[in-house]
Amino acid sequence: MDVSVIGTGYLGATHAACLAHLGHTVVGFDVDRDRVRQLANGESPFSEPDLDELLRDGVSSGRLRFTDSPELLAGASVHFLCVGTPQRADSAGADLSAVWSAVDLLAEAHAGPALLVGKSTVPVGTAAAIAKRFASQVGAWEVAWNPEFLREGHAVEDSLHPSRIVVGTDSESAWQRICELYQPILDDGARIIRTDFASAELAKVASNVVLAARLSVVNSLAEVCEAAAGNVRDLLEVLGSDDRIGSVYLTPGIGFGGSCLPKDVRAFAERARELGVGESMGLFDEVDRVNLRQRSRTVERAFALAGSPDRAPRIAVLGAAFKAGSDDVRDSPALAIAGSLHDRGARVRIYDPKAVPAARRLRPDLSYTEDAADACEDADLVLVLTEWPEVASLDPRVLANRVARPVVLDARLVLDADRWRDAGWEFHSVGAAHAH
Ligand code: NAD
């Protein structure tokens, strides 16, 4: 099928490359010229396993093109909307300006008949508003909402082997065409669920608010463990053994971040208020508040452990990405904590195996290194902020020779405590008493 993908960020670039991999002819459109140029050369603008290879294959096969010329959209009969929907500057709600400018651009570039498939995460009601906008358009436009559940760091794998595909549409022909597009994935056993527009839009934010709430619960439990001389690792083993709870997505840390969860929780509560059902939304305001508190809590604990009240402590920060496997630093708690430590006078050196270039662009005032041992040179405290395997596998005996004081705070529960203690470290971790 001839398809277009509008917006080629993390979601759109991955989606375009995967559709080409499935055999479709794809044109990726973006307003960002530099991004288009890079993608057209078959290079990924961000670090995602297997994405470079899929882009290269797609571009060299001729099935995958990238452009900033809207006229090229007219050649496609299915258009995937993948533009960003960040938080608005003036409220907790979602900024839909990119969605509406893409819809307007598409309506001008293409007279229909065509199918618009929304993949961006949007407030409930957006798909119906877009369908209404197209109802006044010449030519027969159909609309469907097909929210994306991919996880950064697993974007290609999740796109080609999704846990579920959700399609919200009231049109039988739209449903048929989308099934046809995803046929190879469906043949592989993927589950597909058909809903109305509203349920499809809500399905995505519902997943994110449930995950966010779970993390704020577990972070609160970790805080109590610290105060009560308990150990959250033991608690997690007990909780995770209960089939009703399960052990996945149950690790405390420095709070969730990235470009999706925080803004999706806020936008969900904001939209519920607009719909007149704001009374129960205090729960989600609290999820957000508890989440942000993990950042300030980690900063306080780091200063308390770094000692030397009479001079600025040196702190080695291991991790800047918002999660392992990704170079994304958008709303990264790790980078925010490193920034706060620096702003409050600590001498911070940040190591990250992938995210240093992106972090440097966002916080050029901080000091970075691509070597963990260099970050630890003369440090009063080593602070683990991203759960990278590269960090988990560091040799504590080697690092002990580089630091000023062998004190570590594992804020992501990735280090082997016994191994570090045996190498002479004073070991602290999230969810364990200060003296543990
Ligand atoms: P992104 O910021 O990486 O990419 C958005 C892209 O859209 C940018 O390249 C931007 O230049 C482009 N754009 C903006 N306005 C445009 C226009 N009018 N026409 C064409 N292109 C335009 O964002 P992302 O992380 O890819 O997220 C996109 C959407 O997908 C969001 O709604 C997000 O919530 C959702 N989502 C993201 C992920 C993820 O892991 N990143 C996962 C699931 C869903």
Q: How many domains, in number, for the residues?
A: 2
Query: Would you identify the CATH architecture of the largest domain?
Result: 3-Layer(aba) Sandwich
Lateral arrangement of strands in the main beta sheet: 3-2-1-4-5-6
Low-pLDDT residue spans: none
What is the third-level CATH name, the topology of the largest domain?
Rossmann fold
CATH secondary-structure class of the largest domain? Alpha Beta
Bound molecules: nicotinamide-adenine-dinucleotide
Report how far the terminal alpha carbons are from each other.
60 Å
- Fraction in beta strands: 5-15%
Radius of gyration in whole Å, from Cα? 23 Å
Biggest sheet statistics: 6 strands, parallel
Could you tell me the number of beta strands? Answer: 14
Proportion in helices: 40-55%
Keywords: NAD, Oxidoreductase
Protein name: UDP-glucose 6-dehydrogenase
Enzyme class: oxidoreductase
Family: Belongs to the UDP-glucose/GDP-mannose dehydrogenase family.
